[in-house]
Write a structure and sequence with these properties.
Elements lengths: L18 E4 L7 E5 L17 H5 L8 H12 L3 E4 L21 E2 L2 E2 L7 H25 L8 E8 L2 E2 L2 E2 L4 E4 L5 H10 L7 E3 L12 H6 L6 E7 L6 H22 L9
Parallel strand pairs: 2-3, 2-6, 6-11, 9-10
Antiparallel strand pairs: 1-3, 4-5, 7-8, 9-11
Helix pairs in contact: 2-6, 4-6
């Protein structure tokens, strides 16, 4: 792939990379993804014309998702890939070219810096989207001999209120065509008293609106799920730890049922 002209170079050589891989040799059957881990913006796109405060809110990233993913990775001994830049630079869980890939308005907030042409959109994808997904592909390719015992867990968080509508769910289990892993999570989570869990709500997975689960999970035939935790449950260290322990315990419980007869490790 040829280098873009200087005007379209999104990341400077001294800026952080577009992804981070944690524990790539982890022994767990779970592979963790965190598509909206960061609210960073490259220096070439100064705050996208937004107030810095907006980037720190749910419009800029999934609050708490990175910390939860890292703790879950440690508890399960699971590989984890995290995105390096804000979802408003380019959304790593949207197909490039889709209406919400580089939104000009998000949650009612205008993003002046996203009124761009196709050349800059492609440059952002080359800088931030494709490197992240190539890292996931490489990690899964290295696990080909464990294909029969690999599952994709994509970790996200959602705001307690959206456009004036309160969300009652403490967590949500989202899926597309493959419900295998989601069904096991839903069954286990709904056994916990007082926990309100959304079944494909407030969002659901589609080919046109999502990328990680359809491409890295369904297209490979791997069990896959997108887990959403309400952000007010992830604002403290105690909240993050509680959710990480809960999700790790559930995964350990359902893993043998998901992969009957497989030799499993990592716990």
């Amino acid at each position: 792939m040829s280098s873009p002209p200087p005007a379209l170079r999104i990341l400077a050589p001294d800026e952080p990379p577009a992804f981070e891989v944690v524990n790539p040799r982890g022994r767990s059957s779970a592979v963790l993804l965190c598509d909206h881990a960061s609210n960073a913006v490259p220096r070439s796109l100064p705050e996208l014309g937004m107030q810095e405060e907006a980037l720190c809110q749910h419009t800029g990233w999934d609050i708490g998702a990175a910390r939860l993913s890292r703790r879950l990775s440690a508890l399960l001994d699971a590989p984890l890939v995290l995105s390096g830049y804000s979802r408003l630079v380019i959304d790593c869980n949207r197909p490039p070219g889709s209406p919400t890939s580089i939104p000009e308005i998000s949650c009612g907030v205008p993003i002046p810096g996203n009124a761009i042409d196709a050349a800059e959109a492609a440059a952002r994808a080359d800088a931030c989207f494709w490197p992240y997904h190539r890292a996931i592909t490489a990690l899964l390719d290295e696990r080909r001999d464990r294909r029969e015992s690999t599952a994709i867990l994509s970790v996200h968080s959602f705001t307690p209120s959206m456009l004036g509508q309160d969300r009652p769910w403490h967590a949500a289990v989202l899926y597309g065509r493959d419900r295998r892993l989601a069904a096991l999570f839903l069954e286990a989570m709904r056994r916990e008293p007082g926990l309100c869990v959304g079944d494909n709500e407030p969002y659901h997975v589609t080919d046109g609106g999502d990328y990680g689960v359809p491409v890295h999970g369904e297209a490979r035939g791997l069990p896959c799920v997108l887990l959403e935790i309400r952000q007010d449950g992830l604002l403290s260290d105690e909240g993050v730890e509680a959710w990480a322990q809960r999700l790790a315990a559930i995964y350990r419980e359902i893993e043998a049922e998901l992969f009957p007869g497989a030799k499993l490790g990592g716990h």
